[in-house]
Every structure is written in C-alpha cells, then in structure tokens.
Amino acid sequence: MRKLDKIIEFNKKFVKNEDYKEYETSKVPKKKLVILSCMDTRLTQLLPKAMNIKNGDAKIIKNAGATVMHPFGSIMRSILIAVYEFDASEILVVGHSGCGMCNLDTSKVIDKMLDRGIKKENLEVLESAGIDIKKWLHGFDSVEESVKDSVNSIKNHPLMPKDNINIHGLVMDPKTGKLDIVINGYK
Fold first, then answer.
1. Residue 135 near residue 107 (C-beta atoms within 8 A)
2. Which CATH class is domain 26-99+142-187?
C-alpha cells in the first residue's frame, strides 16, 4: 500500500473514533509563543516535550535549519501574522546541534538535482536572474551564529513591533532535548 493510501486509511479511523477530540483547542496560542525550529525529524516530538509545549500552546514554524533566509519570505510572514493576529509576545528560534544545514555541501545537492533530471539550463536561468543557487542552498557554518542571525533578522525587521516582544535564540541537543540559551530576549 502506498504512503498516502495508508495515511487516508488511518485518518478515516481517526475521525470515526473521534480521536481528534483530545487535540481540540483554539487557534490562538495559549502561551503566546512562536517557535521557529528546524524540520529535523528528531525534533518532531522531542522539541515540544522538552519545552513543555502542548497542543494549542504555540505557533510552531519549521524549515531547514530554523533560519530566516529572507526578510519578506514566508517564515517572516508567518512570524508577523502570529504576532499581530494571534497575540504572540515571545519568539523562540531553536536551532540544534548536528544540523544537516550546517556546512551543507551545495555542490553535492546540485549534483543530485542534475542526477534526478533537473536540466543544467534551469540552474543557468536562475543564475542569470541573479540567484546564486549555491548561496541560496547553503545553510550556515555555525548553528549558534545562524540562530543569532535569525534572531537579529526578526528583531530588526521593519514590521516587528519594538514593544512587549521578546525574541530568544536557543540550541537544542537532538539526542537529549537539552536547551542552551544563545540569546536571552529579556536582556
């Protein structure tokens, strides 16, 4: 059975048995938190458990490396909506040790694209449009520095209010869930 078929089969039972009821909550985060974290599979359940985050407590945004790559991209848009529409007052950028985006070999990623049928001309079109694909794909050289950069991007965004918003940066150990503070937004 294909993955989607398995998911839909499970979902039918989930809905029929009303298993969703234990997850019912408001769309407004109870703890007024926004968490930007990495999409790493090890953090799916570990991060909320290690932070005592329950369903409905926080807006959780995930992307490769827990990074704000563009000041007007979808990550920053989501953070701003959480602040203005859902009354979030604390933002946590949570990177993690051993992140796959740290020192990512972009040449290998590009080779894999070509091996899977992406035409070299497509990459050349992007380059001619001013997109440095290697820079765009590249993650970062230090998790801590990346967290600091993302916190600073959020903090200094022209649409981010300067009052009553605390922006923190942390690094999590994906084995133990231990959190280390990189930036304490209260200071």
1. no
2. alpha beta
Pick from 171, 167, 169: which is nearest to 186 by CA?
A: 167
**β-pairing verdict for 90-96 and 179-183:** unpaired
Domain ranges for the chain, please list them: 26-99+142-187, 105-138
Q: 91-113 pLDDT, tens per residue?
A: 999 999 999 999 999 999 999 99
What would the pLDDT profile of 135-171 be if each residue is shown by its tens digit?
Answer: 889 989 999 999 999 999 999 999 999 888 999 999 9
Tokens found for residue 173: 């150990």
- Print the SS3 string covering 62-129: EECCCCCCCCCCHHHHHHHHHHHHHCCCEEEEEEECCCCCECCCHHHHHHHHHHCCCCHHHHHHHHHC
CA angle 74, 75, 80 (to 5 degrees): 95
Record the tokens describing residue 27, joined without a space: 């769309």
Quote the DSSP letter at residue 140. Answer: B
Please give the Cα distance from 168 to 187 (Å, whole number): 10
Q: What are residue 169's DSSP bridge partners?
A: 93, 183
- Bridge partners of residue 185, in order along the sequence: none
